[in-house]
Design brief:
The structure is a single chain. The chain is α+β, with helices and mostly antiparallel strands and 666 residues long. It is built from 18 helices and 16 strands. Strands 1, 2, 4, 5, 6, 7 and 8 form a seven-stranded antiparallel sheet that branches. Strands 9-13-14-3-15-16 form a six-stranded mixed sheet, with helices on both faces. Strands 10-11-12 form a three-stranded antiparallel sheet. A hairpin with a 2-residue loop joins strand 15 and strand 16. Helix 5 crosses helix 15. The longest helix has 105 residues. The protein is elongated and about 180 Å long. The two termini are 25 Å apart.
Length: 666
């Protein structure tokens, strides 16, 4: 299968876009399409899936261009189609898928029925053949089966997902099926199943149903025993298949829950950190409240001094400057002097007659004794003021100390609240992490319980199947001896013996081929993996197609980084394509038998997870793995890709985003 061209009409943001692919002319087998994020690279890749299989990964399944959808009316439906031209074998195919869309009277756009696929096949003589509708799906699957398409049309996100699946031993059955389908083992597998794939429909199974027991009751009885054993074995094997499906589902759920739990384990740590900070906030708020209470309590005690300080201090400063103290007589007032004047005699006995010099001398005391003289009161005031000043200074110092404590508490509270708001809450999303962790852990335990119970049932079924097979083998041997007595039955035994020998040889051939294919796949993967990912690491594939990365210096499995996991799956896909190509070109008939058709490698943003050094290695490796490579790449990686693959690029295009609803290809 080689891509020739593709045309998109009204498909999402592509109104009328066509693209020709490089055809490996003069060794140029790479088509590169560069575009910025959001320009429509992934949409273009999805157009291949829609054209071939009628499916996309879009959440919005209305693939009609938004401008067309807006402008259409109920009377003017619109068509979407994708036309893909390709070569497969000696034939050329034009595959076109169309979908009509209508708008109802409520302006809702809906698909008018299902999409329709049309296929025109042009053979080597140039004759066109229109494939019937009933054969179109089979025709496409004969070119490339849907389940295998994702290994040839994939994006960086898909590689990342598959990398995680590999590291967790997920989807190993799908990987095995891909190897069988792409590397020629599927045909042998079907032949083996046809010969002896079951007691009813296989060749040997049908022979077992043809014994003539009409003339021999013992043959009839043994045949009934064999059939009964076969029915029981089929029933138990079907139950084992159910158990494997249940275990696979439970194991996938368990794996997903474990991955989810890893995310919430860090969230649990964040939750614990948040609770610790909230306790600190509560403690600081209590400390702050205590400091505020201390200030209020002390203020209540010192309120008089505090409130009067504004009045006392100026008076005190004035009185200190005045020399009033020492000019009065303690405990003597103006009333005492007036008493002496009224009685005209001093305390010393001197007569205080009117107009006498003595009387005038005594009257002078009126100027310095209370109420005109307040020396004593000033002294008392100043003494009291000094006491209050000292007390007030103690309160202010106490208040400042407590205010500093309050400020410190506020800083601690603010810092903790800001950290919770900016660093913790956005990651927790307000969830009760502990409850979520408990629920996830419970789901994991339930999966483990299902797997444990199923495994117990499986062991019991295996024992019972073994018993039934022994019983059947015994009956089969007895019937075989009796069959020799009947000509028709002897003939059946001969046919069964031939079919059995063919089955054994084919099974041995399959086992040898599968082992050889797996070894070659591992070697090719290591060759590509080491080219892309420098380091002392080796890829190992076991018989269940579980892929491990081994550290050579310790000879043990290592946990891979995201980039290494992506390198592993990239190596897996490209190795299969490389081996298929090698088988086609080989002169070894055995390898030719294991070959498949040519397939392109179509990738969306395959370099987005690699650094510059790894991008160089990938770009230098890809063009030599298959006959055709198509790469949709970010504009930031475009120059590097052009530099490293310049001699292999046959076609180069660029997405130009005109608007959110239209992109053109240049």
């Amino acid at each position: 299968m080689l891509l020739e061209s593709i045309k998109l009409h009204n498909f999402r943001q592509y109104k009328d876009t066509s693209l020709d692919f490089a055809q490996d002319i003069q060794g140029k087998n790479v088509t590169i399409i560069i575009g910025e994020n959001g320009s429509g690279k992934t949409t273009f890749l999805q157009s291949f899936f829609w054209c071939l299989y009628g499916i996309t990964n879009f959440k919005d399944q209305i693939v009609l261009n938004k401008d067309e959808a807006y402008n259409m009316t109920p009377e003017t439906p619109r068509d979407v189609y994708v036309e893909l031209k390709l070569k497969h074998g000696d034939n050329q195919y034009t595959i076109t898928r169309k979908q009509k869309f209508r708008k109802d009277n409520s302006n809702n756009v809906k698909a008018d029925g299902n999409s329709v696929c049309e296929i025109v096949k042009k053979d080597s003589t140039g004759n066109d053949l229109f494939i019937e509708a009933t054969k179109r799906e089979a025709t496409i699957n004969s070119i490339l089966r849907n389940e295998l398409a994702r290994y040839f049309f994939f994006d960086g996100e898909r590689i990342e997902t598959m990398g995680k699946e590999i590291s967790g031993y997920k989807k190993t059955e799908e990987f095995a099926e891909a190897v069988e389908g792409l590397l020629g083992l599927k045909g042998m597998q079907k032949a083996i199943e046809h010969l002896n794939g079951g007691p009813k429909n296989s060749v040997i199974g049908k022979y077992n149903q043809q014994y003539d027991s009409s003339s021999d009751s013992e043959v009839k009885q043994l045949t009934e025993i064999i059939n009964e054993c076969d029915d029981k074995i089929i029933f138990m094997e079907n139950r084992i298949s159910e158990i494997e499906s249940e275990n696979k589902k439970a194991d996938e759920i368990k794996y997903n829950k474990q991955e989810e739990l890893k995310e919430y384990q860090s969230s649990k740590e964040l939750q614990e950190e948040k609770e610790k900070l909230e306790k600190e906030i509560k403690s600081e708020n209590l400390n702050k409240a205590d400091a505020q209470k201390d200030i209020c309590r002390e203020f209540n005690i010192q309120s008089t001094s505090f409130l009067s300080a504004g009045l006392i201090k100026p008076a005190f400063d004035i009185l200190v400057k005045l020399k009033i103290s020492g000019s009065d007589i303690p405990n003597i007032t103006d009333k005492t002097i007036q008493y002496l004047i009224d009685h005209k005699r001093c305390l010393c006995g001197t007569c205080l007659s009117e107009g006498s010099a003595e009387l005038e001398e005594v009257k002078k005391w009126f100027e310095v004794l209370p109420p005109k003289s307040i020396g004593n009161m000033v002294n008392d005031f100043k003494m009291t003021a000094r006491t209050r000043f000292n007390t007030l200074n103690d309160f202010i110092s106490f208040r400042d100390q407590k205010l500093a404590k309050i400020s410190e508490c506020d800083d601690q509270i603010t810092n903790a609240e800001d950290y919770i708001h900016n660093n913790i809450d956005p990651k927790l999303n307000g969830s009760d992490v502990e409850e979520i962790v408990r629920t996830i852990s419970s789901d994991i335990s339930e999966c483990e319980r299902i797997i444990k119970n199923n495994n117990q049932d499986r062991r019991e079924l295996d024992r019972n199947i073994g018993g039934e097979k022994n019983k059947r083998e015994s009956a089969e041997n007895q019937r075989k001896e009796l069959a020799l007595k009947n000509k028709a039955n002897r003939q059946i035994e001969i046919y069964k013996a031939y079919a059995g020998q063919i089955f054994d040889k084919l099974l041995n051939k399959y086992n040898e081929s599968e082992k050889e294919v797996r070894a070659r796949l591992e070697n090719n993967m290591n060759e590509i993996f080491k080219t892309i990912n420098n380091g002392d690491l080796t890829v190992h594939i076991n018989n269940k197609y579980q892929i491990d990365v081994i550290a050579n210096n310790v000879n043990g499995k290592v946990e891979t980084s995201e980039g290494q996991s992506i390198s592993v799956i990239f190596s897996f896909i490209t190795s299969m394509i490389k081996m298929s190509r090698e088988n086609r070109l080989s002169s070894d008939k055995d390898k030719q038998e294991l070959s498949s058709d040519i397939y392109p490698l179509v990738m969306d943003a395959p370099l987005s997870k690699f650094d510059k050094k790894h991008i160089k290695a990938v770009c230098e490796t890809i063009p030599y793995l298959t006959e055709q490579v198509v790469i949709f790449i970010k504009d930031t990686d475009g120059d590097l890709a052009k530099e490293y693959m310049s001699d292999k690029i046959g076609k180069s295009h660029h997405f130009r985003k005109i608007s959110e609803t239209e992109t053109v290809l240049e």
